[in-house]
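fold-stage: in
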Amino acid sequence: MLPFVNMSPEPEQDYFCDGISEEITNSLTRVSGLNVIARTSAFHFKGANIDIREVGQRLGANLVIEGSVRKAGEQLRITAQAIQTESGHHVWSETFRRELQDVFAIQEEIAKSVADLLRLHMPEVQGPARPSAPDLDAYTRYLRARFLIHQQSPETLYAALEQLRGLTETYPNYALAYSGMAAASGLLAQFGMVPGRDVYPEVKANAERGYALDPESGDTCAVLGGLRAWFEHRWDEADRMYDRAIKQQPSHAPAHMFRAMALLCQGDFSAAESGLCRSTELDPLSASDCARMAYLHYVKGDYPSAEEHLRESFELDRDYPEARLYEGLLHFQQRRYDAVIQCLSPSASPLDIGLLAAGHAQEGSLSRAQECMERLHQLAERQYVTPLAEGFAAVGMGDFDLALQRLDEAIDHKTNFVNLLAVEPFFHPLHANRRFAKLLKKLNLSH
């Protein structure tokens, strides 16, 4: 499902067009036996003038749905068409002219038409696309906030939170608004803008509220699973929530990806790789999925494969910060400390600075490592800096007592990355210390 083109007089209606595309995609992810390409990859082609056959090749899709939306006042015109990617032939098209309040019926009708079309050619495709019919005003406001969340900058995440809080004041039973707030707050913590322990109470309340209001939504299930895993270390409960999300929406790529990473934290490499493969199949142009696949291979010790997936991630997003950290860790394990320094020196990320200090120390320049430590202390006067950053530096500098202390603090701060403590090769020098086993116990992980 490619993003529908905005043909409206107002350019700011982009969020509305994107929302229609996403809602149809979301409905189709519920159809069993159907592989539905995720938003991240499909929206890679937004605004691009590209041959539909090339789109099919890059996404691994044999059918593409595209269309346009024109919204003028209360009048809505949506054109949708299905195209075979190998031949370029149109196999279905329709134009809908309705009142704005009929947008949910149109989305349902398009999803149903596509599912029916596919069942003619693929008998294994089963089950209806689930209709959704929220209040139009609530839906429109939610789309605005979701549009901001997808941009994933600190500014847009804060703006989305403000909009979603207002939405729940008007519509206190709108499930996706609560899950959206939990996701936005969680992303702020992931980016290191706030400590996880500060946002945890709000993330917990919103994730649980969203799920309670709509336990049949893949989104609410996956968000609650994320809370249970990354904030609470309740791994079995998280797995049940991810499993429920996938049963509700078999093509829900984020549920496959987050479940795989939770399994990786627990050391189940085989299941984690299977889940990440499924996620990348559904979201082939996701820089984050490529980076996490690289991380999996790095943890397994398959460095050539890790390098290949990192290259793919950087081709999709040359400045993707998660991939940059993984690249630094990979070079460190390869003892290519000059490469660690080269790739991380330009970064202002606390974790990158901590790892950079470790690289300098291992290369024999303790003075430069100390300069990085001082830089972290100065940064902490202006913004939040996770203790994990100094933990990275301390490992490289051979100060294992300080490293263990900072890792303990990082767990208390609910720094997401620390959940990978049991499998992360960087921390192997700490394994023989009895305090390390106690840290794993706090995370409900085995040695």
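fold-stage: in (second)
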Amino acid sequence: MSSARIWEGGGMEIEFDGEVVEWRGPAPFYFVVLPLDAADLVDEVKAEVVYWGVVPVRAQIGETEFETAMFPREETWFLPVKAAVRKAEAFGLGDVVAVRIDVGRD
């Protein structure tokens, strides 16, 4: 189950557990898939925060914080996770990780 806190002026903080998946392209990319309830929360604020079709976020997995932008895919959102984050937090393909995201731009 996801939890959320809405900020005044748009945006929100969401906490959820999501699975790490791979999307192959010219190079493999790794993402955490938002569960549908978390995706619904993002959809509530996306009109206020979307930028060129993506949603900017500050994310935290374990002790590692990073900035990225989520992509809409397969009726949810995919959170890109760099190799440095996966290495620092020791997780990989198929793992379920706890994530906190701050949705929106500063």
